[in-house]
Amino acid sequence: xAPRPAGRIRVHPILPALSTEKFYAGVKKKPGPKRxxxxxxxxxxxxxxxxxxxxxxxxxxxxxxxxxITPSIGAGPTQLRKPTRAETTTQFGVPExxxxxxxxxxxxxxxxxxxxxxxRVPGGGRRRKWEVxxxxxxxxxxxxxxxxxxxxxxxxxxxxxxxxxxxYPDEAQTSFCFSNGxxxxxxxxxxxxxxxxxxxxxxxxxxxxxxxxxxxxxxxRNSQLRPGNGQVPGDVLADVGRYTLSNIVNMDQTPLPFExxxxxxxxxxxxxxxxxxxxxxxxxxxQATIQLAVFADGRTRNLRPPSGCQIQxxxxxxxxxxxxxxx
Length: 327
Description:
The chain is an alpha+beta fold. Among the domains are: 58-108, no CATH class; 127-196 and 244-278 and 285-303, no CATH class. The chain has helices at 20-25, 58-69, 85-92, 96-107, 131-146, 153-167, 180-189, 208-221, 281-284, 316-322; strands at residues 73-74, 80-81, 192-196, 239-240, 243-244, 249-257, 264-268, 287-295, 314-315. It has a three-stranded mixed beta sheet with strand order 6-8-9. A two-stranded antiparallel sheet has the order 1-2. It has a two-stranded antiparallel ribbon with strand order 3-7. The termini are far apart. Residues 121-196 form the HTH CENPB-type domain.
């Protein structure tokens, strides 16, 4: 039997590849949800702080307590009752725990010695556990600093342990811990800080302007005319009284330490001079002396300075204007 002829075979032509833009241009996209406004979003609202931390004056505390214990809410045709704790809290917006605490303070009489503008009553906060030890430690610290001794953290640690064994013999040695928190509170309570050891602090005299004026007036009163030197009346010269500006000079000496004393020590806050004993007394206090020559006309002149000194001429008018002139 002869085979059956095969059917027609359809040959598809080879089409060019489509780009990504053309491919997605013919695809219909599904629309997404509409964008909501910020006011219509389902975002959770921030939680309201019911009782934020606040500080209250004594006058406000007494006002709240007076409202709490005074009958002011109607309980019938002719009767009044005291507000409850919850009603007082809602009226003034204060925590319920504050009401009990304020009532206890008022019954103990802690508000009697205070003004209405104060906030806290005395005796609050954490009490010091080793009060006797801290008092003795501070006295030893003051005595050592008065004698010029250096005080560092190691000294506080060693002396505090010795004082603990002396004043608390019945306590276990592990009860007292020289921690950073205890040491920081001890320094803050007694106003002590770590300072650099320095020389004597210099201070500008309070009456420096009067000293300059008195010195100038003395020179004017005791000056004499010297005919023949161009200082007779009528000459056009830059002078002050009967002296030319080139002949008016003020000289002063100021120490210049090569370096400050080495080291740091704990000392009371507010003191400008932090001194300490040194094993090399002369070596640590070495310094130079500067001879400052100030001419009234402001011109520089070469003067022969003393041995080891240097002269820096400056203008007298400029120093007086800036308040740096010391007579």
